[in-house]
What we know:
Elements: H1 3-21, H2 26-54, H3 70-84, H4 95-102, H5 112-124, H6 132-135, H7 153-168, H8 181-197, H9 199-202, H10 208-218, E1 224-225, E2 228-230, H11 237-244, E3 248-249, E4 252-256, H12 259-271, E5 279-283, E6 297-302, H13 335-345, E7 346-357, H14 365-377, E8 381-386, E9 399-405, E10 413-418, E11 424-426, E12 429-431, H15 434-446, E13 454-458, E14 467-469, E15 475-477, H16 504-532
Parallel strand pairs: 1-3, 2-4, 2-6, 4-5, 6-7, 8-10
Antiparallel strand pairs: 7-9, 8-9, 10-13, 11-12, 14-15
Helix pairs in contact: 1-2, 1-7, 1-8, 2-7, 2-8, 2-12, 4-7, 10-11, 10-15
Amino acid sequence: MAAEQKQKLEQQLWNIANTLRGKMDADDFRDYILGFIFYKYLSTKMDLYANQILQPDGLTFGDIIGHADEALLMQEVKQLAIDKLGFFLEPSELFSELAKRGNAGGKNNFILGDLAKVLTHIEQSTMGSESEEDFGNLFSDLDLTSHKLGKSESDKNELIVKVLNHLDEIDFDLENVDSDVLGDAYEYLIGQFASGAGKKAGEFYTPQQVSSVLAQLVTVGKDKLKSVYDPTCGSGSLLLRVAKEVKDVSAFYGQEMNPTTYNLCRMNMIMHDVHYKRFDIKNEDTLERPQHMDQRFEAIVANPPFSANWSANPMFMTDDRFSAFGKLAPSSKADFAFVQHMIHQLDDNGTMAIVLPHGVLFRGGAEGHIRKYLIEDKNYLDAVIGLPANIFYGTSIPTCIMVFKKNRTHTNDVLFIDASQHFDKVKTQNVLLDEHIDKIINTYKNRTEEDKYSAIVPIDNRGRDAMHRVSTSHRVCTSIAENDYNLNIPRYVDTFEAEDSIDINAIANEIKALDLQIEETDQSIASFCAELNIKTPF
């Protein structure tokens, strides 16, 4: 999408947000706008598909109404649409029709009742079909009776009609295969609301530059994927980002605990033209009630909530995800529980990349035990990448990416990358530019060592000397085993900057010169005081 078109689209969307802004908080108007965008998308998709089916008969979808064979034609289109699209809408239920009806004659006509019925009918049209689970309760967060829309029914209707008319002016250009107007709109809105709503929104949105790093890491050397999985998939943007890095992804899998965010994820999949048969998103707590236990995935990506609480129930010691480790992650820090879960789901030829707080690299206790098992016993850890602080919405803590593989090419060492100082500051947020992302990916891909940026570190002392001199005054330990499996990046990548040497003789000469200047100044002041017949101040 051209930059100018994208800017225009974003401005239109922001204008719609401003229509609602005074009525509700960011989370609420996000749900309304995205819900209506999704309704418009389904309507446009339905209309285009129906017109395509009816073209041989010289009819359009709207021509069915009042046709002699209306019932028969409608039933045929419905059956084909349910199978192909997964849902069905009648011509009178299309977005453009309701928008037109709401603003007919230049005044706001009451359409709230009709709109509520249409949204319910979309979900009902899928009942008994393969797509029922994927479309069920998709509009549950679009409450048209909410007082947040207005005090009276008339006020609510007026606001909704305005929003529908704003959206009706946006051309989603679905027939253009190279255009992703809808995807751009969706990601823009989620990104804007995430930055505005703070930590709560940050739970379901990973900044695009971080998504890009994760997606590129798990697709190195591949142009097709059988499957990609995200156990904390949020709005699904990270899953879709992986798809941009390869020619084809056969299937998308994810799990999300928050019902609203789960709805956003399914909408996001459908609006990015991922067929309902190609994605399987579940609404459940991943650690407590995993929904894909028997499946293995070629690529796994995740940005789980940092140091979240979980039950750490002793019963999990018999769970295949955790039993081999001998210990569970602490109940107050679920970070390694997510790692263990993802390792269990990872296919033998797969790669997983997970964003975690820095504490996972060095905390002891059960976490230290799990970390050691992953490296010493299983040899799954492939790389550790330090990211800049203040890169996520809602938290300024520094984070890292851990990359795991079950069948590693480089079995004797681990790559460490310190990218924490490579970023650009935009307002109050730190961001990774393309050049920073490329540097991380190229370093990982080629496993290159660079002074003060990256190092290849042996797992034990057999492959290389345990100590490596990096300057005349500073050493870093290069054996992970020698460090008792502490992965703190500064232990392996030296970022020590030696201070400039001090020339004592030059400083002594400067002091002498200053003393002479002071003496000359004192003499001048004494001379002025004598002329004025006053005492000197010294």
